[in-house]
């Protein structure tokens, strides 16, 4: 190492220090930096939209499944507790309806009903002598 | 560039969202559509019931209005007899016009009620139903004609001739309505007999389905046969009632409804017995 090499200017060194301290920071022009931020923003947006899309798809599938399998959700007579009570109730209610209909029909045949009596009107409305 | 990227990512989402909304709306609205359809197109029986209920309400209101007018007419008549003035004569003629119009309105609605009942009297032959409907249409035309005559009355002479015209028509209306009522009463008994017979035939053919015990099955079979016998006897008697109504001339008879009522009395008792018997057979 020569003396010339060791004879550097301290002022120049102190001025050049900040320049070396910023070596790790990427020096990008303003336009390229904005593009990076925009890309990040769009990436986030796409992620949100994908989640939203998945939720929607899930909703569609749920609706379709519900519509298709809804009749199967009704408890069959041989399924679950109290399975025997359901058909019995159904039969008795049907029978009750039939019998009520029969009662109604007979009640309707009551000849003493005053439903169609001729209206109580005065048939002579003369002025008299 | 920015716009294109956003558009590409939004397309499937928009499509899926719209599809989801449509599908959800479709599946959720299906029962409502059915319900709405039911509301829009009610059954003919429902229409009949609704119109019948309206006619009944109208009839009651018109009868009440007639009573008020009749009271006013009687007072005006009394006043006319006491005063014998032209003013009191004018007043009584005005009162007569009001009460006569009210009377005709009541008659029109009454005949319309009978007509609506005849149209659903399925215990009658279609031919008889049509005959009675025609008769009621003729009666309605007569009453409407009388109504138009009332409007033309200006003095006492015209009032007397209009009242005379009504007096001639009134018994005819009463007699014809009497026959229609008799037919309706018969139809109701016949319909009840038919419905019970149909029910008994149906149930006696499927005793095994609701009675497993062989002994009780035989008992029920005997019971149903007995009920069938009772219903056959009711039908025979009803046929006789029908013949007695048929023998009456198309002009009808005022006393016919009461005669038919008496004849149907015993059959009504029989139908009630049958009803109780069927109930026992089906529930015990």
Can you describe this structure?
The complex is a heterodimer of chains A (129) and B (284). By secondary structure, chain A is mostly helical. Chain A contains 4 helices and no strands. In chain A, 5% of the residues are buried. Chain B has helices spanning 2-40, 44-83, 86-119, 126-152, 156-204, 207-210, 214-247, 256-283. In chain B, helix 3 runs antiparallel to helix 4 (126-152), helix 5 packs antiparallel against helix 7 (214-247) and helix 7 (214-247) runs antiparallel to helix 8 (256-283). Chain B is flat. Classes of the chains: A mainly alpha (129), B mainly alpha (284).
Task: Compose a concise summary of this entry.
Chain A is mostly helical and 129 residues long. Chain A has 4 helices and no strands. Chain B has helices at 2-40, 44-83, 86-119, 126-152, 156-204, 207-210, 214-247, 256-283.
Observed structural traits:
heterodimer, A: 129 residues, mainly alpha, 4 helices, 0% strand, elongated, B: 284 residues, 8 helices, flat
Low-pLDDT segments of chain A:
72-85
Order of helices and strands of chain A, N to C? HHHH
What's the total count of β strands of chain B?
Answer: 0
Largest sheet of chain B: none
Along the chain, the helix and strand elements of chain B come as HHHHHHHH
Bin the helical content of chain A.
55-70%
Number of discrete helical segments of chain A: 4
Strand content of chain A: under 5%
Percent of residues in helices of chain B comes to: over 70%
Strand content of chain B: under 5%
Calculate the mean pLDDT score of chain A and round it. Answer: 74
Shape of chain B: flat
Largest interface in this structure: A-B, 41 and 69 residues
Question: What general outline of chain A do the C-alpha atoms trace?
Answer: elongated
Mean pLDDT of chain B: 87
Oligomer: heterodimer
In this structure, how is the largest beta sheet of chain A organized?
A: none
Radius of gyration of chain A in whole Å, from Cα? 48 Å
Please state the CA-atom Rg of chain B, rounded to the nearest Å: 31 Å
Secondary structure tally: strands of chain A: 0
């Amino acid at each position: 190492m020569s003396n010339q090499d060791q004879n550097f200017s301290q002022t120049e060194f102190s001025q050049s220090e900040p320049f070396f301290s910023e070596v790790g920071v990427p020096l990008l022009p303003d336009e390229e930096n904005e593009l990076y931020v925009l890309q990040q923003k769009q990436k986030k947006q796409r992620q949100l939209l994908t989640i939203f899309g998945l939720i929607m798809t899930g909703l569609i599938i749920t609706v379709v499944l519900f519509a298709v399998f809804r009749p199967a959700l009704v408890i069959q007579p041989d399924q679950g507790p109290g399975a025997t009570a359901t058909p019995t109730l159904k039969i008795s209610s049907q029978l009750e309806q039939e019998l009520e209909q029969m009662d109604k029909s007979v009640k309707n045949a009551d000849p003493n009903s005053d439903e169609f009596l001729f209206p109580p009107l005065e048939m002579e409305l003369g002025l008299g002598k | 560039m920015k716009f294109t990227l956003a558009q590409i990512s939004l397309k499937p989402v928009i499509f899926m969202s719209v599809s989801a909304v449509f599908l959800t709306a479709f599946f959720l609205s299906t029962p409502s559509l059915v319900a709405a359809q039911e509301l829009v197109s009610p059954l003919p029986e429902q229409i009949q019931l609704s119109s019948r209920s309206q006619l009944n309400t109208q009839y009651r209101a018109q009868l009440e209005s007639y009573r008020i007018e009749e009271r006013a007419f009687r007072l005006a008549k009394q006043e006319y007899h006491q005063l014998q003035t032209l003013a009191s004569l004018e007043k009584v003629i005005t009162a007569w016009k009001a009460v006569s119009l009210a009377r005709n309105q009541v008659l029109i609605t009454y005949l319309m009620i009978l007509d609506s009942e005849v149209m659903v009297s399925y215990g009658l032959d279609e031919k008889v139903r049509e005959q009675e409907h025609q008769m009621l249409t003729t009666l309605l035309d007569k009453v409407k004609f009388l109504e138009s005559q009332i409007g033309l009355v200006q003095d006492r002479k015209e009032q007397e001739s209009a009242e005379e015209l009504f007096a001639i028509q009134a018994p005819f209306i009463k007699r014809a309505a009497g026959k229609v009522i008799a037919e309706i009463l018969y139809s109701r008994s016949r319909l009840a007999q038919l419905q019970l017979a149909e029910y008994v035939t149906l149930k006696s053919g499927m005793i095994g389905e609701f009675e497993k015990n062989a002994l009780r099955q035989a008992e029920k079979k005997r019971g149903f046969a007995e009920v069938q016998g009772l219903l056959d006897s009711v039908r025979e008697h009803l046929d006789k009632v029908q013949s007695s109504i048929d023998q009456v001339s198309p002009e009808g008879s005022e006393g016919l409804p009461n005669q038919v009522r008496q004849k149907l009395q015993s059959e009504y008792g029989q139908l009630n017995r049958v009803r109780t018997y069927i109930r026992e057979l089906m529930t015990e």
